[in-house]
Structures
1.
Amino acid sequence: MTQDLSIKVKELKKSFKGTTAIKDISFTVGKGEIFGFLGPSGAGKTTTIKILTGQLKQTSGHVEILGQNITNFSANLYERIGIMTDNSGLYERMTVYQNLAFFARLLQVPTSRVDELLQRVGLAEHQKKLASKLSKGMTQRLILARAVLHQPELLFLDEPTSGLDPSTASAIHELLLELRDNGTAILLTTHNMEEATFLCDNIALLNDGFIVERGTPEELKIKFNQEKRYRITKTSGQQVVLADNHETVETIQSWFQTGQIETIHSCEPTLGDIFIQVTGRKLV
Ligand SMILES: Nc1ncnc2c1ncn2[C@@H]1O[C@H](COP(=O)(O)OP(=O)(O)OP(=O)(O)O)[C@@H](O)[C@H]1O
């Protein structure tokens, strides 16, 4: 395999009793790449993460994580990855600080990193709270801080910012981009199209156990921008959306000549629009 591949998945399948959750998935994620899995509930996102992190065994297919075949998942591999899923076990009777300090000792990370991360994820003022007394958003931030304590080479995030307020979500985005810039590969799942557009280098749209489309957010937007439109704000404040045709060109020309146009933008489809075009289904 290529040295720079952090994840390599080939023809992955996973069946449960009565359901085939993953039908046939292949993809790769490079070092320092944020790869987003986007798909509606039940598409198979969490199942994929569980297989890739050794929590579930695939029915068939080949998976390599940091160059190691997943069937021989070693303890050494766990030290090189970080996992944030909703079942990441925290010690409920320990405080926020104690939880992180405990894992820092295990992973031989200096406690200065604990202090830094508490600040970064906005938990510094809550560090003396028991983990059992945290809100859902705080718990999520603590799990994320724990997952990135040792600056893992590969990070798995299942819905990292769901339910968080916009400013915390944006602090977390910054942290993830910084990790990416330092070479961490990140596989994340999200329902949030804006988040995927902003964060991801590459995106796979997952539907019913298959990857139905993939590419960079830009590539997908260009590919699916078949019906080009323009959004115009007139000096009167009125907003209009017009299709790209001869009539529109004439209308815009006449509005320009009479000074009626404030702004004009071409409308690009969102990832949500693209998902509907590809699958006929809404993302959420
Ligand atoms: N342990 C299990 N036993 C049986 N079926 C399962 C199990 N885990 C998942 N499934 C089924 O596999 C399919 C994919 O589930 P998965 O949790 O991977 O979806 P998801 O894309 O992560 O959805 P969500 O966005 O709601 O978390 C679903 O039909 C689900 O019911």
Note: The pocket of adenosine-5'-triphosphate is lined by residues 16, 19, 21, 39, 41-47 (CB under 6 Å).
2.
Amino acid sequence: MEKIIVRGGNKLRGSVKVEGAKNAVLPVIAASILAEEGTSTIHEVPALADVYTMKEVLKNLNAEVSYENGQFVVDATKELKTEAPFEYVRKMRASFLVMGPLLARIGKARIALPGGCAIGSRPIDQHLKGFEAMGASVEIGNGFIEASIDGRLQGAKIYLDFPSVGATENIMMAAVLAEGTTILENVAEEPEIVCLANYLNAMGAKVRGAGTGVIRIEGVDKITAADHTVIPDRIEAGTFMVAAAITQGDVIVEGAVAEHLRPLIAKMEEMGVGITEVSNGLRIVGPEKLKAVDLKTMPHPGFPTDMQAQMMALLLQAEGTSVITETVFENRFMHVEEFRRMNSNIKIEGRSAIITGPNNLQGAEVASTDLRAGAALVIAGLVSEGITRVTELKHIDRGYVDLAGKLFALGADVERIQQVEENVEEAAASLETAASLSLNTSTN
Ligand SMILES: CC(=O)N[C@H]1[C@@H](OP(=O)(O)OP(=O)(O)OC[C@H]2O[C@@H](n3ccc(=O)[nH]c3=O)[C@H](O)[C@@H]2O)O[C@H](CO)[C@@H](O)[C@@H]1O
Ligand SMILES: C=C(OP(=O)(O)O)C(=O)O
């Protein structure tokens, strides 16, 4: 079984470069299949498990794809197939983002129903409401969602009940080839939405208002491939900012865009962390003592849910009582049990976690429950007494390129190892898992 082993106590120093954003690149790759003509080259594409899954989804749809040295090249000019099987959607919900482009381009899509995951039930009703408003008929059966339209989608006025990131992206991609104008209200305003809109516009779409609460899309007759560079990953940047702060370190996070990180910067500054903009990113200086703060996760520009677990690790070290309220996902406190194994004082009351600190954290064997939880446990290990062993690294690999290696380069005592099992039962269980993993990933 692979583990990340952390021995706490080292202060982080130096520079770390962030990758292109996972949550921007996945919709951008999905959008690339809108192009009936030409080849798109997408730059700054991080080598993440999710990117390889998306590559398989596109290949399965009959697009020609290559991915080398951070460049993802897509030629989707051949006739596309309509189906994304459960094999992919199960590994990564973002596979569902090909539904909008397929409907727009070929009028039909059959995608496996995503189902729930560790952080919540994650329905897709808002995506479907958008497609139906544009004239598509949607049917659910046998674990699949089938959407189709005779002729072209029709522009429509659509109000989202919640500013869902995925629904905003999926509907936006469908609307670029619709007949007439689509007005999308109460949409997500995340930087990743702006990144997608910029790519769509480079391909000849007419999308206005991305980054605000209302997006207006004038349908066009044809989309042509284009080159695009993905924005830096604000969540990876935030993860290193927290790692620097918790160790009283002094780190430059290269590529961090302050504008994308306002809510995190504000909260970390309230805690006493020194943050300054420098020419190539952000410099983070961790204080000797951290102050407790309250925070609530919200859609952008509110505090990002994807930074909640990492901030919990930081708040464990703060003096006093902090309250974290998770409003975006109903079940995103799975890491609390793992933090408790590291000797921390956290109470859960409904959607809030009440943290009393500072905690005298102790190393333990803990499991990543999702990608951000995994990163947060590694961060907690950086200031724990003794050795922390983090397992279930497949989650971390969905969202971080070489997390252990990058922390090591900053001076942390961190390594990723393949541990030989100590007894026969464990070895057998591990072999079984490895066999099923290799079956699941054999297409990657
Ligand atoms: C690949 C990607 O970009 N993932 C991000 C994206 O996920 P994702 O796009 O799945 O997140 P959404 O913004 O859609 O989900 C937010 C909330 O809305 C609910 N909802 C969503 C759609 C819908 O049709 N109905 C509905 O009720 C979800 O269950 C959830 O409670 O945004 C999340 C919220 O910032 C981030 O945590 C994820 O990292
Ligand atoms: C929850 C996340 O991603 P996804 O929506 O891909 O599961 C995340 O990036 O923290």
Note: DSSP finds 15 helices and 25 strands in the chain.
